[in-house]
Amino acid sequence: MSYMQFLVEGDMHMYGWNGKFLRVNLTKQKAAVWEYDADMAKNFLGGRGFAAKILWDELKPGTDPLSQDNKLIFAVGPLTGFPLPSSGKLVVAAKSPLTGGYGDGNLGSHAAVQMRKAGYDAIIVEGRAEKPTALLVQDNDTQFLNAEELWGLSSFEAEDKLRDVYGPTAGILTIGPAGENLVKFANVVSQGGRAGGRPGIGAVMGSKNLKAVVIVGVHELKAANPKELKDLGAEAYREILTKPNYAFWKRQGTMSTLEWSQENSVLPTCNYKEGVFDEADSIGGFAMEKIKSSQRGCPNCNMTCGNVVKDADGEESELDYENVAMLGANIGVGDLEKVAALNRLADSLGLDTISLGNVIGFAMEASEKKLIKEKIAWGDYKTARALTKDIAYKRGLGGVLAEGVRFASEKIGGDSNQWAMHVKGLEVSGYDCHAAPAMALSYATCALGAHHKDAWVISWEVKAGREGYGEEKVDKVIELQRLRGGFFEFATACRLPWVEVGFELDWYPKFLKAATGLEMTWDDLHIIADRVYTLIRAFWVREFGKAWTKEMDVPPARWFKEPLTKGALKGAKLDREKYEAMLQTYYRKRGWDERGIPTKSTLAKLGLKDVAGELKKKVELKS
Ligand code: PTT
Ligand code: SF4
After folding, report:
1. Is 108's C-beta closer than 6 angstroms to any atom of ligand 1?
2. φ, ψ of residue 295 in degrees (nearest 5)
3. Is the pLDDT of residue 251 over 60?
4. Phi first, then psi: what are they for 349, rounded to 5°?
5. pLDDT for the residue numbered 14
6. N or C: which end of the chain has fewer CB within 10 A?
7. DSSP per-residue letters across 537-564
8. Ligand 2 mean position to 496 CA, how many Å?
9. Is 298 in the pocket of ligand 1 (CB under 6 A)?
10. How far is the CA of 275 from the centre of ligand 1 (A)?
11. Any idea which ligand is nearest the CA of 193?
12. CATH superfamily of 3-216
């Protein structure tokens, strides 16, 4: 199927998709159902695809992300909620208050499954409630509940109170005090330890006075071929159990990445000065196993990877690699129980752990360099803990860090912009790139800023060779962006069965066919991914207008200027000239011009002609 054929118009009966969005206006306390066309489903698939399309179509350029005019979107895809592996995820999206561009995140939650059972594929939240509110969505009934008693509670406490009323399988999404206080990297929390929306989606929720969303649905999802779907699902779950890495995955989940990162000199250490941490062994996967008490997971998953440990306070904390890399090695804390306590605190306050570890590391370096008066040494757990609370409540230095590392660097000045670790304002995730040009490109061109989610190319790069800046690296970044930043964010299904235990990609077109009745090849799915990636790029360019430059796609200066001083890769740093050439190759392959702006012909080819019309009001478009 060519992609022009793939662009369909008009309505048709849909299977797989519910075909409905719920639009909620908090100012007017009104809700309405919007039946969307089949072309929306087929051309944007779901999840991130829906969110990007809605934000492009409906958000006025220049909208203040924390104003009532921003739109908060919860979106799922055509596989979500079916009895298929790891199909209990949803996307939370909005214009980001941290970056000023497109923002989203992905979390596992009963809310994903319940939204589908309630009959919706997305909930679009508009306006701002006058008082703290919780939204209750039960099929055709939407209620605006007074949440004044929940306001100020931790994300856990708020969820517990709602769960007492709505039961163990209700879909519940909450924010913590950080979201209420509009911390720019506040996220959305669910199930006591699943969290998503790194670019401040929790703050957008807080700005709308929305403390929680509760979803309870009763409908059966309609598949095009229910019998085939059921059989395929059962077979797929069985197949996952046969994978050689399955048993080890169940033991350590993402935590085994800690040892891998240390071995390969990519473990962010002391604000990404180094890629190895002297105390890595005491915070790695094997150390975690010694204090592991249980395991949790997302709905519909037989790979449950939430490693629950007892933290330094004797409380339960759910650990993943990123949490530990950023709140451990990156700030010099080598005691896993303490790292777990910081992680739990972040979850309860509703703060993104990656950005949190990043801004604390930044503050430690600023203190070392005497750019701030506060004293915070590397590894100072006690001060880091106090600072975490200050960030959530915007007190003192915490108030500066709450705006994100880009703002903090502008505020404290000196040479701090050289070691403020972000791209486009989003703090870098847990992989150091002194010796990883492809991973640096992946961060720089991710749809959100410096997130690893769209293209975790580092594992491939370690095998392929660290030094090169060649075309094959660009190709690999794009291939992964199509799959991870594309398909899995549209579906919306967890990508970890594929990434971590080698569950084959061939399964997914079969799932889609059984669910929707549509025959979609990977080529078709890649085209949708390119369409959405280009639309998101257009969103960024529309927001920044003439201020948009290719500098937006360049990783932090530290990786180009200060070589590693420790480990097997001592002396390594990125080469700016070679990086620039690699970036231009990336642009060319994407059909974007030398500034990283989509060309007219690319937009037309991807069925985004109307986007070109809008975009050229802001910048000159090349043909
Ligand atoms: C994701 C980012 C990650 S990615 C981690 S750990 W990772 C951090 N987790 C946080 C947390 O926990 N608490 C907190 N307060 N902040 C946190 N910020 C960080 O957020 C997560 C898993 C993981 S664990 C990963 S890789 C995979 N991510 C997926 C994805 O993005 N898409 C997809 N289709 N499938 C994915 N599967 C895996 O899900 P963001 P979760 Mg997360 C506690 O949110 O904004 O996308 O950033 O959702 O349900 O917790 O599962 O080593
Ligand atoms: Fe959730 Fe882990 Fe299962 Fe993915 S593998 S769905 S993150 S429990």
Report:
1. yes
2. -135, 140
3. yes
4. -85, -15
5. 81
6. C
7. HHHHHHHHGGG--GGGG---THHHHS--
8. 7
9. yes
10. 22
11. 1
12. Aldehyde ferredoxin oxidoreductase, N-terminal domain (3.60.9.10)
